[in-house]
Amino acid sequence: MVMKKILLVKIDDPDEHHRYPPFGFMYIADSLKKKGYKPKILHKVWSNKFLEEIKRESQDSFLVTFSVITAPSVWQSLEATKAVKDMGKITVWGGLHPTILPEVTLKDEFIDYVILREGEETLPALIKTLETNGNIDYLEGIAYRKGHKTIVKNVSPFTEIDQYNMCWDDINAEEYIFKRDNYARTLPFMTSRGCPYRCAFCYNVAVNNRRWRGQSVDSIDYDIQQIRKFNLDAVYIFDDYFFVNKKRAFDIVRRLGVPYWAEIRADCFNEEFVKELKETRCFEVFIGAENGSARILELIHKDATKEQVENAVRLCHQYGIRVTLSFMTAFPFDTDDDRKQNFDFMYYLHKTYNNVNLDGPKVFTPYPGTPLYDTALKYGFEPPQTTREWGEKLARFKCSLPWVPEDQRPLFEKFNLMVQLGQMKNSIITLPIKALEEYRWKNKNFTFPYELAIFSALKNGFTTKLFFKYLKQY
Ligand code: B12
Ligand code: SF4
User: Which residues does ligand 1 sit against, CB inside 6 Å?
Assistant: First the structure.
C-alpha cells in the first residue's frame, strides 16, 4: 500500500533573527508515521522561492497543513494556503492562532479545516476520516465549514506526550544549531508542555488550562540519544516552564551532560537551587521580570515580585551565571508613574549587576485567548475581523494600541532598541551612544532619538538622505 504523503508547512517571518526547530511538527511527524502516513516537514523563511517549493511538494500530497501562531507571519501562511488551494488540495491549519480563533480562521474559504490544540491524535483522525469518506461530524478537536455555518467541536483530550518523540531526522538539524557565547553548537530542545502559572498576557491559561505535562525521563533519554549525534556543546531548553519539578529538571540536564540555557521564574531561586544550576553547567537563565512596578506585576498576575527578580539576579551574579531579563510596557492600565518605575528598575539592575542583559521593554500585545485580551477590549482595542487584519495589526515592533497616544507610539516601538544600544560592548564608537542611552533611561527622556536615525541609516548604507528619512520616522 502506498503511504499517503502529508505536507507540514511552517513559515518564518523574514524579520525573525533566530530560527528554532518546528517542535510541534516534529512530534506530529512521529504520530503520522506511527499511523502509517509519510510526513514531510517544510520549514523556511518566507520567500517566493519557498512558495514555489511548497507548491511543488504539495503536488503529490494528500493534505497540506500549516502551523500558525498569532504573529506577522499569518499573512504569509494565508498566501501559501491560497496558492495550494488553487491547486485543488485539502488545506488544514493548526497551532495557537487557529486554535484560539477558529471562526475567524475559517472565514478564509481556502482553509478547509482547523485542528484545535494538539495535533498528534486529531490530525491522523481527520486524515483517516477523509480517506475513507467518513463523517467528520463525529470527530472532536476540529473546526470546519458546513454549508454557511462554521462548526467548532470540543477540543480533544491532551496528548499523552510520552507516546511521541521529536523526529530529528525529519529536519536538517544543522540549520538550527547556532553559536551562543563560547558555545559554537547550541541546539534548542524541549521536554514539557504548559505551565501552572496564570500570567494574564500568556496563552497558557486558555490553551493548557494551567496544566503542565512533562515527558518522562525515559522518553527524554530517547530524545537525548537522537541529538547526541549532532556533537553539541550546549542546549537551549525551550519549555514554557522547565523547572516545575526541580528534581526531574536537574536529572534531565545531568543526562544531557552539556551546558544549558533555560527560562526560569524569579520565585524559583534560592541559594541551594542556584548552586545546583551552576553545578549542572547552566550558563544563562532567562527570567520574565516583565515590569518594575509592583502594581503592574499584581495586575498581570505575575505572582513573582521585583524583590524576587533582584534576588535571582544577585544569586546568579554570585555564582557567575548570566541572566537575561525581559520587560514589557504599554499595558492598558499603565500610568506614567508605572512606566517611570519600570525604567528605574531596569536602570538599577543594569548599573548594579554586570551579569544582567535587559530585553525590552517590549510593547504589550493583546493576544486573543489571554485574560488581558478582554481587558484590552474594554480599553478600546478593536479586534481584527480577519486573519489578514491580525497579521497587519501585529506587524513586528509596531504599536497601534489605542491607549498609547498616537504621537508617542513611534517612541514606544523604539524603547527596546534604545535599551539594546545602551548595552553594547564598549568601544570608541559605542561609548557616546551608550552614555546617551543611559542618560535617557535614567531621566526618562526619549525625545529626539537621533542616534536611532544614525543607527538605522548605518544599517542601510549611511547617506544624509537616509538619516533624515529615519529622523522623520522617529
Ligand atoms: C520557539 C518559540 C518562538 C521562536 C520560533 C517561532 C516559530 N517560528 O515557531 C521565536 C523566538 C522566533 C518566536 C518568536 C515569536 N513568538 Co514565539 N514561541 C516559541 C515557543 C517558546 C515554543 C513553540 C513550540 O515549539 N512549542 C512546542 C510545540 C510542541 O507546540 P506547538 O508548536 O504549539 O505545536 C503543537 C500544537 O499547537 C499543534 N500544532 C501546531 N501547529 C500545528 C499545525 C497542524 C497542521 C496541526 C494539526 C497541529 C499543530 O500540535 C503541536 C503538537 O501537539 C512558544 C511557547 C510554546 N511553548 O509553545 C512561543 C509562542 C508560540 N510565541 C509567541 C509569540 C507571540 C511570538 C512572537 C509574535 C513574539 C513577538 N512579539 O515578537 C514572535 C513571532 C515569530 C514569527 N514567526 O513571526 C506566543 C504565541 C501566542 C499566540 N497566541 O499565538 C507563544 C505561545 C509564547 C507565549 N507564551 O505567548 N517564538
Ligand atoms: S510563567 Fe511564563 S509560561 Fe507560565 S503563565 Fe507565566 S508567562 Fe506563561
Answer: 12-13, 16, 18, 20, 23-24, 27-28, 65, 67, 69-73, 92, 94-97, 100, 115, 118-120, 123, 159, 190, 202-203, 238, 240, 365, 367
Residue 202 CA, closest ligand 2 atom number: 8
Residues 192-215: tens digit of each pLDDT: 999 999 999 999 998 999 999 999
Residues 220 and 325 occupy one common structural domain: yes
Nearest residue (CA) to ligand 1, atom 4: 20
Over the stretch 350-388, which tens digit does the pLDDT of each residue have? Answer: 999 999 999 999 999 999 999 999 999 999 999 999 999
- CA–centroid distance, residue 8 to ligand 1 (Å): 15
**Domain co-membership, 242 together with 322:** yes
Quote the CA–CA distance of 382 and 395 in Å, as a whole number. 15
Looking at the structure, do residues 148 and 272 belong to the same domain, yes or no? no
Residue 42 Cα to ligand 1 midpoint, Å, equals 16
Q: Tell me the three state secondary structure of residue 143.
A: strand
Domain identity same for 116 and 181: no
Same domain, yes or no: 113 and 174: no
Q: Quick one: CA dihedral 244, 25, 178, 229, positive or negative?
A: positive
Three-state SS for 328-345 is EECCCCCCHHHHHHHHHH
Does 157 fall in a domain?
A: no
Ligand nearest, relative to CA of residue 32: 1
Domain that holds residue 21: 5-152
What is the model's pLDDT at position 472? 66
For a mutational test of ligand 1's pocket, the pick from 27, 90, 96, 372, i.e. the residue with the most ligand atoms closer than 8 A to its C-beta, is 96
Return the amino acid letter for 332: P
Ligand 2 mutation target, pool 192, 193, 195, 213, most atoms within 8 A of CB = 195
Q: Which residue reads 551574579 in cell numbers?
A: 317
Is the same domain home to 256 and 400? yes
Residue 469 covered by a domain: yes
Give the CATH number of the domain where residue 353 resides: 3.80.30.20
| Residues 142, 201 within the same domain | no
Instruction: With cut-offs at 50, 70 and 90, classify the pLDDT of residue 467.
Output: low
Q: What is the pLDDT of residue 466?
A: 66
CATH number at residue 13: 3.40.50.280
pLDDT (0 to 100) of residue 136:
96
Distance of alpha carbon 466 from alpha carbon 328, whole angstroms: 30
For cell 517549493, name the residue.
Answer: 53
